[in-house]
Amino acid sequence: MKIDLCDKIALVTGGAGMLGRVMIRSLAACGADVVIHYNTKAEKAQQLKREAEAMGRQAYAVQADITDLTSVLAMRDQIQEHFGKLPHIIVANAVAQYKWTSILEQQPADYESQFKTCVMQSVYLAKAFMPALIERRAGRFIGINTECAMQNFPTQSAYVAGKRGMDGVYRILAKEVGEYGITVNQVAPGWTFSDRDRERGFAPPLEDGYLTTVPMKRRGTDQEIANTVAFLASDLASFISGVYIPVCGGNVMPAI
């Protein structure tokens, strides 16, 4: 048994980012042709394109503003023109970055950016790409959420508000398109070890405040997040839909 994504095209928004780049590599390693969406990281997107092509995959890097429907539709048209068809796998990974602080200190623009990049990105991607999945009667729609959506800690308000809104969209979308053989799921990383940490040579000590709450007593890795995405994108997950899957070593546990 293995993850086989041959003959599939996967789009990852924020594909040149810290988590996105590992998703791109992993999906390509599983056999998928890949679309690397980026906003400003053009050079990194082109590097990933070359990496995927070296694996024998088709790859395409495309710039778009995922908070603007016109831009998302233009991205869709460019992908259609390049591949001659639209992706089978959509991964909504891009999100705006900002400084966390208290509700009283957080700027209103930060709440707006989170709503746009979490909720509206997902809505726009659905409007742009879901009709083709429905016509095909198959597909995978995967969103990257966060463990923070269950934690609700101080200073997380803008991020949590955006991600919890996104959660509602995904749960409803799963019910609306399930009859067409399309699965809609969310992956919720914990505090993840990525290239940013590797470049700094950073390794958290076991007594780190975050790790004291994690049953597995370590941080997850970007590869572990990408593994979950690849699984949900595959036929192995053909009857899993509407779920929120924490990948955080047990730090948060959805209850029945």
UniProtKB/TrEMBL annotation:
Give the residue spans that cross the bilayer.
none
Q: Does the record's keyword annotation contain Transport? A: no
One Pfam family name is: adh_short_C2
Q: Extract the GO molecular function terms from the UniProt entry.
A: oxidoreductase activity
The keyword Oxidoreductase is assigned to this record = yes
Keywords assigned by UniProt, alphabetized: Oxidoreductase
Query: Of which family is this protein a member?
Result: Belongs to the short-chain dehydrogenases/reductases (SDR) family.
Q: What is this protein called?
A: SDR family oxidoreductase
Task: Record the organism.
Answer: Paenibacillus piri
